[in-house]
Amino acid sequence: MMNQSINKTVEQIAAVLKQSEKPFLILTHTHPDADTLGSASALAQILKKCGKKAKVLTGNVPARYMFLDKNKVFVKESKEDCFIISVDIASPKLLGDFETEYSDKINLTIDHHMGNNIECEYKLLMSDRVACGEIIYELMIALGVDLDSEIAEALYAAIVSDSGGFKYSSVRPQTHIIAAQLIEQRIDFAEINRLLFDMKTKEQFTISKLAYTLLEFFSDEKIALIGFNDEMLKEHNIVETEFSDVAQLPRQLEGVEVGILIRPDSNGGYKLSLRSNKFVNVAEICNIFGGGGHYHAAGCNISGSLEDVKSVIVKEVEKRF
């Protein structure tokens, strides 16, 4: 295992990438979203413009995100000796099926999550950036690479996705400036927004319909919780990749400060997604259970029965009121 590194500047990381003679392998997190995929795709294209070899290792990519692989950089496996970069990954657990093979081989991690605990040689952590895509944009500038429409498309998807359509409090004025520069490349930003926010699969409609029936309230309705168990998922043929929109649902209710989504994980426990509206730092809560994320959006895994997990997480959230 590599020693914990000191965080580097964008310019320092650009120099490291320029000097590397190895091909680059970019890792995305399990159940990939548009930020990890868009950032990784853009980075691979940027490195190729620098005369490097680069590809992106992914798990199962939802169909609506496949427009991010126009240059065919996504691969399912790699046997080469590579300089390995993790993108938008806060902890080794988020590597999913690739954790065993790659968690101790990462050379560089690029991330915007508080509490990142990836151990590697180099780190580029900028927790004030709303999306990892913003960091990749800054790295592109430092590398002296010219923006083109395909890089712009990938970066726009990354940024608009993790900013919730630019509505989260972590959006900076510079976020909008970057987005404007990406749009100037004449990308179809309207279609990207449709794919990311408006298009739903039939399975997602099924989950949303079921989620409303599972809503529970705690702490004078300041906490809203939705909990799925294995039986529900099997009965309705629900897969993990279809949960991306449901995590936001509980906190949309008037008067709710913290929304909690609980669903089974692959280890017999439960995966939790926490979202807050104003004053509760859910990343702090998830860190207690080995997870992490952002002030208003974070996740973790907890072992036990569904009822036990509900009790544990609600008690921890209630301490913040």
Protein model, in words:
This protein folds into two domains: 10-197, inorganic pyrophosphatase (n-terminal core), CATH 3.90.1640; 202-318, Roll (Diaminopimelate Epimerase, Chain A, domain 1). The mean pLDDT is 93. The chain has eleven helices and twelve strands. It is α/β, with parallel strands linked by helices and 321 residues long. It has helices at residues 10-19, 34-49, 99-102, 132-143, 149-162, 173-183, 189-198, 202-214, 230-235, 282-288, 306-318, and strands at residues 24-27, 54-57, 74-75, 83-87, 108-111, 122-125, 216-218, 223-227, 258-264, 270-276, 292-293, 297-302. The longest helix is centred in the first third of the chain and has 16 residues, at 34-49. It starts with 9 loop residues before the first helix and ends with a helix.
- Largest sheet composition: 6 strands, parallel
Radius of gyration, Cα only, in angstroms? 19 Å
Give the overall silhouette: globular
CATH class of the largest domain: Alpha Beta
Strand order of the largest sheet: 3-2-1-4-5-6
Alpha-beta classification: alpha/beta
CATH architecture of the largest domain: Alpha-Beta Complex
CATH topology of the largest domain: inorganic pyrophosphatase (n-terminal core)
Count of spatially separate domains: 2
**Percentage beta strand:** 15-25%
Q: How helical, in percent, are the residues?
A: 25-40%
